[in-house]
Amino acid sequence: MKRMRKIVFSIVISLFVLGCGTKKSSATEPKTTTETNLSALLSESIPPITDTAKIKRFVMLVAPRAFRDEELKIPYELLTKIGHKITVASRDTVIAIGVLGLAVKPQITVKDIDTLKYDGLILIGGTGAAIYWDDSVVHQFARYFARTPNKIVAAICLAPVTLARAGVLAGKKATVFEDKSTIADLKKGGAQYEKTDVVISGNIITASGPQAAEKFAKAIALSVR
User: Does 209 map to a domain?
Assistant: First the structure.
């Protein structure tokens, strides 16, 4: 607990604990990286960015309640540690609470996201992520980032369902929290489900849950460097 209290986010992020949850590419198939050939990449350390031109800005979307703590905390810390910038967004700017008690104050609301300011959209999972599954505004953002060159969209745990329902996983390989209904959602959205921790398909990154949070974070960092 003392260790947790020593962690400091940026001045606009409040963090505290309230208590105690290859295949070769072709012209018709996007380049996809699954656990088989991603493991070697993820085993390497990622050094801090020395060229400021390579610093990227991400908007991280979190549910107001019941987001998965590790899926926010680990990517946030890894990406900001090496030099990238992250803005946390949610339905409102009231402190958002994770299933394990992690609390974060979002800087902006979903409706205030300016897509032109960011290089990537990161969707955090947890049971609360279902609030965005059918959110038309979030769907619009997901399609924008997925279809814009040099930008990425990433989702972990239950959040890939949002991407599937937004229509951006059609023809892509992807993973999601392993459950019959979530897997069915991906397939209904035209995705090829992969039972693995992390999948990179073109500029779309998906991960299966909190156990894959570090791999997810590294995959994002590797995709934009």
Answer: yes
For residue range 12-39, what is the model confidence (pLDDT) as tens digits? 333 333 322 333 333 344 566 654 466 6
CATH number of the structural domain spanning residue 115: 3.40.50.880
Predicted local confidence at residue 34, as pLDDT: 55
In sequence order, what DSSP letters do the residues of 89-150 get, joined into one string? EESSSSPEEETTSEEE--SEEGGG--GGG-SEEEE--SGGGGGGTT-HHHHHHHHHHHHSTT
Contact between 187 and 160 (Cβ < 8 Å): no
For residue 1, being part of any structural domain is answered with no
Q: Which amino acid is at 100?
A: L
Taking the CA atoms of residue 38, residue 146, residue 156 and residue 200 in that order, the dihedral angle to the nearest 10 degrees is -10
Q: Among positive and negative, which fits the CA dihedral 115, 80, 44, 70?
A: negative
Does residue 28 fall inside a structural domain?
A: no
Q: What is the pLDDT of residues 59-103, one digit of tens each?
A: 999 999 999 999 999 999 999 999 999 999 999 999 999 999 999
Residue 45 pLDDT: 82
- Residue 202: domain span: 36-44+54-224
pTM score, whole prediction: 0.85
Q: Please answer whether residues 185 and 165 qualify as being in contact, where contact means their C-beta atoms are separated by less than 8 angstroms.
A: yes
- Total domain count, the chain: 1
Q: Is residue 16 part of a domain?
A: no
- In single-letter form, the type of residue at position 147 comes to R
